[in-house]
Amino acid sequence: MAKCWLLLQFLAFLLPATSATSCHTDDLRALQGFAGNLSGGGVLLRAVWTGVSCCGWEGVSCDGTSGRVTGLRLPGRGLAGPIPRASLAGLAQLEELNLANNKLIGTIPSWIGTLQQQQPNIISGTNNKVRSGRTNVVSGNDNTVVSGNDNTVAGSNNTITTGNNNVVSGIDNNVSGSFHTVSGTLNTVSGSNNTVSGSNHVVSGSNKVVTGG
């Protein structure tokens, strides 16, 4: 028995310890702040987000060299509650963010809309909310673009509340603001200087109807 114990100790000494990469302390603090006050699925998230090796946490991706968080993907996890603005702002190297189909409230930092400076964000799916940014490509259904400019939105039942120079196509979209180009059918358009084509739109304001009624 003693010989077996000594052998195990010897093997433990020879074998290197394995552990997930420890993320940067600023990112660790940011993720903890993000999950700290969430309810619903946030309770389960906090239960599995433990320790300091957050690069191994569910939904988190890191750069293998620096340990900085580069991706946060938690769609449809039943997360509910406020997003502390400072928490996401602390993820300085974040390149990908997917929090679709949750019940989160709060303001996402404006730089989230331009995570990749030379590459616009491509947002697809349903029930996404784009709060700010520009030159995003949004497709799917039931998405909301709260503000931003030069976005391309396709699908149905999308809502564009404010912004300029957006291109909207599809069915049953609600569009307000200025200088949008809208095509498709059954869209509701308000504001000014919008160009509307297609049929069966409801148009108010100083807009130009090119075709349809």
From TrEMBL:
Subcellular location(s): the record lists: Cell envelope
Q: Which residues form the signal peptide?
A: 1-20
InterPro entries in the cross-refs:
IBP_b_roll (IPR048518), LRR_N_plant-typ (IPR013210), PGIP (IPR051848), Serralysin-like_metalloprot_C (IPR011049)
Q: What is its main location?
A: other
Keyword entries, A-Z: Leucine-rich repeat, Repeat, Signal
Top-rank taxon? Eukaryota
Q: Where is each Leucine-rich repeat-containing N-terminal plant-type domain found?
A: 25-63
- The answer on whether this UniProt entry bears the keyword Repeat reads yes
In the UniProt record, does the keyword Repeat occur? yes
What PROSITE patterns has UniProt attached to this entry? PROKAR_LIPOPROTEIN (PS51257)
Q: Which Pfam families match?
A: LbR_Ice_bind, LRRNT_2
How is this protein named in the record? Answer: Leucine-rich repeat-containing N-terminal plant-type domain-containing protein
